[in-house]
Amino acid sequence: MSKGLWPAVSGSLAQSERLDSVANNLANADTNGFKRDQVAFKAAMSSALSASQKEEIPYKAPTEKDFHKLDGAQSAYAMVEGTYTDFAQGRAKLTGNPLDVALEGKGFLEVLGPQGVRFTRHGSLKLSPDGTLVTTEGFPVLNPGEQQEAGKVTPREELLARAIRLDVSKPGGQLTITKDGKIFQERLQIGQLAVTEFVDPRLLQKEGSSLYRNDVAANVSQEAKGTTVEQGMVETSNVNAVSEMVELLKATRMFEANEKVIRTYGDLEGRAVNDLGKL
Amino acid sequence: MLRAVHTAATGMEAMQTNVDNVANNMANVNTTAYKKSAAEFQDLYYQTVRAPGTQVSSDTNLPTGVQVGVGVKTSSIHKEFTMGAAKPTGNPYDLMIQGEGFFAVQKENGEVVYTRDGSFKIDASGRLMTSGGHLMQPPITIPAGTASVGVSATGIVTAKDSQGKESQIGQIEIVSFTNAAGLNSTGSNEYQVSESSGAPVQGQPGTNSLGTIMQGNLEASNVNLVNEMVNLIQAQRAYEMNSKVMQAADQMLQVSTNVIK
Question: If you placed Cys at B155, which of A40, B98, B162, B172 could pair as Cys (CB 3.0 to 4.6 Å)?
Answer without folding.
Answer: B172
